Amino acid sequence: MTVDEYIKVTHRELPFTTFDSDNHMYETRDALTKFLPKEYEGVVKYVDVDGRTKLALRNRISDFIPNPTFGKVAAPGAAGMDITSGGSGFAEVRADHLGALHRQKLVVMPGIDAFFDPEPRFELMKEMGIDRTLLWPTLASALEERMADDPDAVCAVIHALNQWMHEHWSYVYSDAIYASPIISLAAGNEQAIAELEFVAERGAKIFLIRVAPVPTWKGRKSFALPEFDPFWERVQELGLAVGMHSGDPGYNRYLNEWEGLGDQEASIAKGARRANPAFVALSSEKDSLIDAMASIIGHGLATRFPQLRFLPVEFSTHWVRPFYKKLQRMWDEAPVLFDENPVEVFSRNVWVHVFHEPDPKGLIDLGLPVDHLMFGSDFPHPEGMADPLAYAEVVADLPFEQQALIMGGSLEKAMGIAR
Question: How many domains would you assign to the chain?
Answer without folding.
Answer: 1
